[in-house]
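Entry 12.
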Amino acid sequence: MNQTLSTPGSSSGSATQPPPAREPRESAARNAGLSEPLLQVKGLSKEYSGNARSGRGALRLFDGLDLEVRRGELVAIVGQSGSGKSTLLHMLGALDSPSAGTIYCGPTQVTQLSIREAARFRNEQVGYVWQFHYLLPEFTAQENVAMPLLARGVERRQAMQEAAQWLAETGLADRAAHRPGELSGGEQQRVALARALVTRPQLLLADEPTGDLDGASADLVFGLIERLHEAHGLTSVLVTHNLELAGRCTRTLRLAGGRLVEASQDRSDKDESDKDGAFVPQHHSR
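Predicted 3D structure (tokens):
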């Protein structure tokens, strides 16, 4: 059984209707600040043992890492390659386990889930977007989006209807019958986003979602993430190397030395981060 916090979690039962007018960014940020935490991470560490044959020594990625993400926030995590950003995202989504520490998503203690419980948690509570779309090439865009619902046991007709609605939300209604090889890179990533959200998760995790796209396509996909995040009441955490896009999030966190540090608007902090080549942008209110 899942362990719970005293405050019960809530699910996202958002209808697939056209998104409402967006809140002013200042209002959205204020509301996020007043909401309860969805993600709570305490004392996280991840260690990999060394290998004498390969000459690799032991590796420790995190050192008592803490993180709190409130419902409705869109949080960017930046940092140098190899700092553990993707590994952290995998742990938040129950794809990997820490060596120590706890992760709560709402009332669920993610770090205590069995393999079967973790699979159910991912299918019901988490939407994941990768840098590469990972669409199945032999299936249409609509079938790819419907896959998570079919895996859950939803009747095919209903799953395909839901998939069609989400493709419409991502501007791809006219591409539903196309296979991935017939779509552009930006369209493929929009299909992947629709697939991540078709189960109506409360948490969206995105690992370099625009990393393989050109500038125009990256801006379009990120703008779509922003719009759907607000329209469907999501809580979102994304990893990115794109500092301009990170600056559009509610908060930006830098992962360095095994810890997460809030991005600062203080010029002195910027100067210090410039010295180690890990400049983090000032965060913008939403």
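Annotation: The domain at 25-50+60-130+201-275 is CATH 3.40.50.300 (Rossmann fold). The chain has a mean pLDDT of 81.
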